[in-house]
Design brief:
The chain is mostly helical. Helices cover 48% and strands 10% of the residues. The protein has 9 helices and 6 strands. It has a two-stranded parallel sheet. Strand 4 (122-124) and strand 5 (131-133) form a beta hairpin. Helix 2 (26-35) packs across helix 3 (39-50) and helix 4 runs parallel beside helix 5. The longest helix is centred in the C-terminal third of the chain and has 16 residues, at 196-211. It starts with 7 loop residues before the first helix and ends in a 6-residue tail after the last helix. The protein binds BIS(adenosine)-5'-pentaphosphate (AP5). BIS(adenosine)-5'-pentaphosphate (AP5) binds next to helix 1, helix 2, helix 3, helix 6 and strand 5. Residues 2, 4-10, 26-27, 30, 47-48, 51-54, 59, 80-81, 83, 87, 118-119, 121-122, 131-133, 136-137, 157, 166, 194-196, 199 line the site of BIS(adenosine)-5'-pentaphosphate.
């Protein structure tokens, strides 16, 4: 959990690449649905463009479908979900229903001026969804995806006025989830400033302890 641009997706991708843990990003799933022009994509696109939350019922449907896939049987990392109290309740209910357990919640603490700098420099690949930053995580060839050579673009919701709205939405709906999780013995608040590797180091001990498997460095 954390505000837009805090680095949640970047850390989840490191865990996916280094430890093979599925990275379940609701934002990525919605962007893929918009690209593919599916019914879910058509319903989500307007909310995303405005920096608003997609309605909980749509979110819950795509999350549950994804978490029931075989690759999630041994565990997964959620990124960008849950984002509201009803989503957190629905996740608890889903985990209980499917005999699973929540092992850890990491909250990314970071000043808003830092996230604005991260977001405005972000570029993504329109073909595969890979994420870059013009300064902090530049592609090998400027403006081109390392993985498939596509021309990189800016996310539509990374426009400055939409970023402000996303930050307001975060404060209003998602920040209160800290209280929901803090007292459950599974919560870590991490300083999300510094390089991606520094943040990875800060959370690795907690993840290894909570996940009960070798997911350190
Ligand atoms: P989503 O895609 O989840 O957006 P977000 O939460 O706003 O998060 P971001 O992707 O902006 O940031 P991040 O924290 O993952 O940072 P990242 O690693 O990319 O959601 C988009 C929209 O979908 C929502 O607005 C909503 O409409 C909808 N939606 C999604 N989930 C929903 C839900 N559950 N309920 C309702 N609606 C939902 O990093 C950002 C940049 O910084 C990158 O360029 C990266 O390279 C760089 N960077 C990362 N870490 C570092 C570092 N340590 N140092 C320097 N640069 C760094």
């Amino acid at each position: 959990m954390g505000p837009p641009g805090a680095g949640k997706g970047t850390q989840a991708e490191l865990y996916r690449a280094r430890h093979g843990i599925p990275h379940i990003s609701t934002g990525d799933m919605f962007r893929a649905a918009v690209r593919a022009n599916t019914e879910v994509g058509q319903r989500a696109t307007e909310y995303m463009r405005e920096g608003e939350l997609v309605p909980d019922a749509i979110v819950q449907q795509i999350v549950e479908e994804r978490l029931l896939q075989p690759d999630c049987a041994a565990g997964f990392i959620l990124d960008g979900y849950p984002r509201t109290l009803p989503q957190a309740d629905a996740l608890d209910e889903f985990l209980a229903r499917t005999g699973r357990e929540l092992h850890g919640v990491i909250f990314f603490e970071i000043p808003e001026e830092v996230v604005v700098r991260r977001i405005t420099g972000r570029r993504i690949c329109p073909t595969c969804g890979a994420n870059y930053h013009v300064e902090y995580h530049a592609p090998r060839e400027p403006g081109r995806c390392d993985l498939d050579g596509s021309e990189l673009i800016q996310r539509r919701d990374d426009a400055p006025e939409t970023v402000n709205r996303r930050l307001e939405v975060f404060r209003r709906w998602t920040a209160p989830l800290v209280d929901h999780y803090r007292n459950r013995g599974v919560f870590l608040a991490v300083n999300a400033r510094g390089t991606a590797e520094e943040v990875y180091e800060r959370i690795s001990e907690f993840v290894a302890a909570r996940a009960g498997r070798a997911v350190g460095r």
